[in-house]
Every structure is written in structure tokens, then in C-alpha cells.
Amino acid sequence: MLEKTYSPRTVEDKIYAFWEQETLFAPEVNANASEQFSIVIPPPNVTGTLHMGHALDNTLQDILIRWHRMLGHETLWMPGTDHAGIATQNVVERNLREKGVTKFDLGREKFLEVVWEWANARKTDIVNQFKRLGISPDWNRQRFTLDDGLSRAVREAFVRLYDKGLIYRGTYIVNWCPRCTSAISDIETEYSEEDSFLWEISYPLKDAPGALVVATTRPETMFGDVAVAVNPNDSRYKNLIGKTLILPLANVEIPIIADDYVDAEFGTGAVKITPAHDPNDFEMALRHNLEAEWVIDTKGNMETVSRVPESLHGLDRFEARKQTEALLEQHGFLVKKEPHSHNVGHCQRCGTSIEPLLSKQWFVRCKPLAEKCIQSHDQGELKFIPERWTKIYLDWMHNIRDWCISRQLWWGHQIPAWYCDDCSEITVAVETPTQCHKCKSSKLTQETDVLDTWFSSGLWPFSTMGWPDTSAPDFQKFYPTSVLVTGFDIIFFWVARMVMDGLELTDKSPFHTVYIHGLIRDEKGQKMSKSKGNTIDPVEIIDSYGCDAMRFSLTRLVTYGGQDIKLSKDSFEQGKLFANKLWNASRFVLMNLEGVDNQPIDESALSNMDRWILASLKHYTHQANTALSEFRFGELADDLYEFIWNLFCDWYVEYAKKQLRDETTKANTQRVLLYVLDQTLRLMHPIMPHITEEIWQMLPHRTGKSLMISAYPTLTAYDPEKNRPVHESILTVINVIRAIRNVRQASGVPHPHPTPVILEVTDPDEMAALEANQDVIHHFVKLESLTLTEALTEKPANSAADVVGSCRVVVSLAGAIDVDAEVSRQKKKLETLQKEYDQLAGRLNNPSFVERAPAAVVEKDRARLDELKQQMTTIEDQLAQFVR
RNA sequence: GGGCAGUUGGCGCAGUUGGUAGCGCACCACAUUGACAUUGUGGGGGUCACAGGUUCAAAUCCUGUACUGCCCACCA
């Protein structure tokens, strides 16, 4: 017997432990299936904590996984975690700093030990948090981007790409984070508009009086200037091109050059060129053969070089900016300073202003990889849902730039490249080489940089499956994966890279479908973040509402268009209510199943209501499978909610109470109840796994040890027309019951007050339906008498009425009626009908409509018009009664 | 500067082949000891942002406008 209320906490823990113990998450539960289904989890950062985005993303994946598992497919959900290079190293460094220790105090080896220890602990935490979501990946296959197998895959991938010329080392401007003291990639740089100033500085001419005034947003970089550029067509400066300027405060000579890049309209039309600290200036310097001069170091401080005034040596770049301004002013070089807002890049991880810095880094040559991606898409090998993300993805591919993959960190995959101490040639190899491939020297030093964390993520779909061993069983069986489920925020970071790597290294797109869902936001539509304090902790929600309640609530909010989801804690209330409803309906069924036999349902002895609920079950089974196969999660949840609450509970269970009291119908009703409940639990299981399993375990005559590996209801063929008659006849009955309730309530009939009811029905089908189901009407509305007639000869006095379909529902009220209320109610109804009638009649009077519209539509309108006319007449009759 | 979304009852949202606007919450009234008050029953509430256009017919297609949000872009 089920407890009176569902207590998620105890049930969830118990059920999850049971699944794990029985190893039901492993694909082997469906070994030898003809079909495979696989998903790789987007690996959470080991440093991270579970947030609502994870809850959503993983719930959706789990729904798909559980569905396919129940369909009998050999189903693999590959779980794991990401080492999250910068993010992790930052946190550990911060922890050390609190103890007054730096990573340099420890040294690389010792520091890595500390990080490993910490990461391992956090990994356990995050995995345990994920388990609270009730998800069913095969934890025994769990991988980590830095484990041995994956590290080997990373080295292998690096070497292969290097050998193909797709990885190279070179000196270019990169986005440098002075706080992380590392390069980061373009997409790790986030731009935001900042209010600042535009300074105009006067650079004196060397051999002539006068000066050239340049405009800059970064005066402190002026010491790194190697030229000033003007537009070749700028008449103001034409005669200055080729002349020499004296760089103020630094006393070095720099040339005036001409370059088309310079916009004569902007600022003063003269641009200072600082190749070491500006990407555009770097490009220009290349064109003009100018050497770069570094003036800001890797920590964002001013270099100690002769070009930089001594008073600025070692100063932070922002402090240096102020001092530079002061110096310029003091020496009369500052012409102007006016407010100016511009885009400034920030480090995605720590928010520090990016310093563009010229440095030697490793890059992936992306163009050839991107071309394969575009081609692969054009051949229909990759599909995005919703489709609009395809364009974003392709646009990015078309405009791709090379990817800086080296990071000046310690935590990560150390780049498998060795420099020869003798000939400085680079040797790249999977296994640590013993000698230089060129001069055979054994004096080799490995590159100290590590790889961008996303480099290993890009290999995830196949590195987790055993690649580079392409004969590995998982790789053979489950690669390429079936679908990737993730948010749009990592399309470039992750999805694109996986496709690039997959196509290049395995010749296959790592998945054929990418399902992109919206992002979770707070109730005001703002992004959830710890700093804003608007986060909702899934574990907290699970504790107070239950895991299944949370899963259901989230699923119901997912739309096909992938809208962002606004969440407040109240959003989870409906899931909790629904879990309660499901629990209690099941409780009722189980309470009434005593003595239920194991016989099949006796089709010949079914009541109309029985047939109706079974037909409805079929319909919703069809709906559920369709929704699942099309990634319509919200509809899936909505439909099942509707079936369980509005059909099964509201109508069938209520009706079953009567059937169970009757010994002649009891046994068969029990069978129907058991069957429908069993099927419903199966349908619901992917969304609400624990509660359904818990209930299912108590079903009599069940076979199999767990619901999660039982068959998902499917239909080989579904013909809605076949079930139409029973649907329509019960719908008529339901509508009449509602009308009776409505009339009685609106007329103020005291509640348990049986009244005589007359149903005047003109449509023969409706009449038949009502005649056949009088018992149903009696059960739901408790009437003194029920009279069915084709035409009412004598209108009862003191009665109220309503019209539904072709049926006039007349309720005799024997004094209970409030005549005024009834009259105004009827008048109002008449008004609405009249409005619809006029509209419809107008349309039917339009010859164009009758000619052009499909016959079926015209037919339908005509029928409706007739119905309306009849209903209006009926109400008019009724009103006349009161007027008399 | 380009691009993409959104604008539907008080709130949050559905509405894919154009054919009488739906759901949850909230609201109002009534009911209630036997699956469930985490309930039941009934009800009120929307000219689908705005302006044009296509069509017999537009929330749904086209054009434009406004507002909101997001992404991308090297203008000092």
C-alpha cells in the first residue's frame, strides 16, 4: 500500500540506489539489440557546482536515453567531467593565496599534485550532485578529460593535426589575460562597451617645426609606438608622409607612414602604431616592415625598458595611463582629452581587461577544418534543432579565424612538442622522444605550455569511446553518437570544435543531430549568476519539491523554438502538484486492485467509458512517441499531464468507482485500471523516473525487475479515425454532464440536490451516445430523473437550460431557481451565439468564400450555422418561458 | 555596423502546413470526512505590439515601424 503522501526524498534515494546496484544504466541491459543509441554528456567542469542549466540539459538527455532504453535499443550515455584548465587553476591558486602561498613556491610538480587532489574531490562532489538529478548515464564508463586514455587521445590528435600542418607555432597578437598570465582564444574574450576617453597627443616633427597630433584610447602604449600612420589620400598630411617624428617622453624617432587602413574621418586622422599591443597595428607593422617594441609585460605592468620613462617602470598599465597623461600634460604634449566609449575585451574567466600582446603561441589552422564542416552540413550530415542555429554555426565557420590553443598554465595537457637545445628544431610526438628528429641531439626540452581546455573537449565524443583505437568496442558500436543536447552558449566553444575534430580525425560527424535548448534565466529574464545572487540551486529545489517534480516542471517549460526559460521557485510548484496527483491516482488504483486477476481485458465486456480511456491511452501513446522523436519535450509533458489529470483522473477514475462497486463489472474494471496505470507509468517514466518506478514496483502481476528496462508503449500503426466514434460519444456525454453542472450551479441549486433533467436531443448520434451512457450521467451528476426526448412537448415551469451540441439541457429546479439570474444568463449566452452566428452567416453569404474555400470548410461552417440557429431557437424558447 | 529571437487574457507561456484563440498560476463563486485541500465543480478575463499588404479567410504569410533581449564585428 502506498503512503498517503509521496515523500520524494526517501523514494528517490532508494530507487536510484536500486538502479545503480542492478547496473541498469549500462548499455549491456539491452545487449544484442539491433539498434544503438548514444549520447555523450556535456562534461561539467570539475570546479563547478550544479546549476539549473545542468538540471535542464541533463533532464532532457535522460528523457531521450530512458526512452530509447525502454524501446530496447542498446543505449549508452557516456558521462564524465572536464578538467577546465583556467577555471580550475584559478580557484586552486586563489585557495593557495589565502594561505599565503603561490604556485611558484610549490613548483610545477607539487602544484599539480595539489590541483589533482582538489579536482578529484570536486569531481566526486559534482558527480554526486548530478546523481541527484536522477539521470542514468553509465557511471562505470565515466571519463575525465585528463585521464590517461583521454590524454593519449589529446596527444594523438595534436600530433596528427601538426603533421598535417593544421597546427603551427608562430608569433602573433593574442588576447592576453594579465591576471591569468596566459593567452586566451578569441571566443574566450568577451567585449563590453566602456566609457573612457580619447586622448590627443602631439608628436613633434623631427626636422621641422610643428607636430602631428594623434588620437588614442590607450596613451600608455605610446612608448611602444614604432610609427604614426595616416591615410595616403588625406590632403592634410600628404606632405608629411615619410617624415620623422620624435616620440614624446621617449625621445625616439619614428616614421610617418601611409596606410589605407587609417580612417581620415576618425580622431585626428593620424594613428599611432603599437605593433606589440594592438592587432591592427601589428598587421600594419607587418605591411611596413616595422619591428615591434614591447612596453607592457605579461602581468600588465610597464616594462623596464629605455623607451618607457623611469617613473613608470613596473607600474600597472592603468596606473601608467594616468601617469602618462600627467607627464604629457606637464610637458605640453597633451592636446585634448574627451569622453569616448569603446569596446574593451575581457577575460571570460576572470573579467580582467584583455591586453592584446604579441607573443609566440600555438595555433590550429581552422579554415581547412571549417571547410569540411560546411561540406558535411551541405551533405546533410548534421542538423540543428531548432534550425536557426545552423546559420549561426555556418556563419562562424565561414568567418573562422585560427584558434590559439596554447595556454601559459600548468593545469592541463602539456603540449607534446620538444625543443632541441642544440638546433632549436621542434619535435612533436605522442610518446616522449629521446632525440631531436633533425639533429638527433638528446637534449630536448618539452614545451611548458598546456592546451586550451576546449582542445580536449573537442575530442570528447570519440576520445571517451576509446579513440585512437578505432577497434575499441564502444567506438565501434556507439560512434558516431546519436544526438548532442546542449545550450547555444557553447556552440562555438564546443559543438563546432567537436565537428571539426570529428570530421578531421574520424572522418565522421560526431553526431547527426544537435538539439539546442534555451538558457535558464531568472524570473526577470536575467542570466543566473552567483554574483547577481539570483541563482536557484537544483539541489535545494530537489530537497523541497522532489527531483521528479523539478524534472517535470523544467520539461514542461521547454519549447520547440528553444526559448530561454524564465524560472522562479514557484515554477516547480506545478510539478509537485502533478507528482502528488499521479501518486494519489495510483494509490486509488492500487487500493482497488485487491484480487485482480492476471487475465487479459475482456474486450466484449467493456463499457463505453472503458473503451474511451483505452482509446485515449492509444492516442496519447502516439502523441508521446511523436513528441519524443521530434524533441518536443514541452508537448510531451503537456500531453501526458492532460491525459493523466484531465482524462484519467477526472473522468475514468471517477467512473471506475461505480464500476468497482458492481460485482459484474469489477474484475474487468480492475484489469483496465491496472493496464492503463501500467502503461501510463511507462509513458511518464522518462520524465519522472523515481515516482513511476516506485509505484510500478507495487503493481500486481508485473514482470521484470525494473520499470526503466520495461517496454515503452508504442503503436505499430495508429489510426485516429478508428477511435473517433468512442471519443465523440463520450465527449458528448462529458459536455452534457458539464452543462447540467453549469446550469445547476449558475441557478444556485444547493449542492446535493437531485433535480429532474430533460435532455432534448435532435442529432441521432448524440442521442445514441446519451442513451447508451445514461449510467455515466447519473454517476457524475446525481439526478432525480433523466428524460431523453427528441422534442419537448411540454416545457417544464421553473426550469433553467443550457445548450450544448444539438442537445438542450433542461433542469427543473422546483423553486430553487433564481429567475432574474437565469434570464440574464440566457440572454448573455444568446448574445454570444448571435455574434458568432452573424459572423458565420456573413461569411457564408459571401459568394467568394463559398466558391474559393475548400468544400469541407464550407460544409463545416454550414453545419455550425445550423447548430447555432437551433441553439438560439432553443434559448429563445427558454426565455419565452420566463417572460410568460 | 550586421544578424537572430521575442512582443498573445493580471503573471509565465503554447499555438509547424492560414479556417471559429489554448495551458499553468493568479482571480471569483460553490463544494468537501472514503485516491488526492498538494482536492473537486463552475465561472470571469484576450480587437494575439502597431501600420500596411496578400487571401474568400491571417495570431499564423509578406513589407515596414516601435520596444525588449541576445549574438557577431579590428575602427585608433
What is the secondary structure topology, with strand pairs?
Layout: H1 8-21, E1 36-40, H2 52-70, E2 74-78, E3 80-81, H3 85-98, H4 103-106, H5 108-131, E4 143-144, H6 148-163, E5 167-177, E6 182-184, E7 189-204, E8 211-216, E9 227-230, E10 244-247, E11 252-258, E12 270-273, H7 279-288, H8 317-330, E13 334-347, E14 355-364, H9 366-378, E15 383-385, H10 388-398, E16 403-404, E17 406-407, E18 417-420, E19 426-428, E20 444-446, E21 450-451, H11 453-457, H12 460-463, H13 473-478, E22 481-487, H14 491-506, E23 511-517, E24 520-521, H15 538-545, H16 547-557, E25 565-566, H17 573-591, H18 608-629, H19 633-661, H20 663-684, H21 689-696, H22 720-746, E26 756-761, H23 764-772, H24 774-781, E27 785-789, E28 799-804, E29 807-812, H25 819-845, H26 847-852, H27 855-883
Parallel strand pairs: 1-2, 3-4, 9-11, 15-23, 22-23, 24-25, 26-27
Antiparallel strand pairs: 5-6, 5-14, 7-8, 7-13, 9-12, 10-11, 14-16, 17-21, 18-19, 18-20, 26-29, 28-29
Helix pairs in contact: 1-21, 9-14, 15-16, 16-17, 16-19, 17-19, 18-19, 18-20, 18-22, 19-20, 20-21, 22-23, 22-24, 25-27
This protein binds one RNA strand of 76 nucleotides through strand 8, strand 12, helix 7, helix 10 and helix 17.
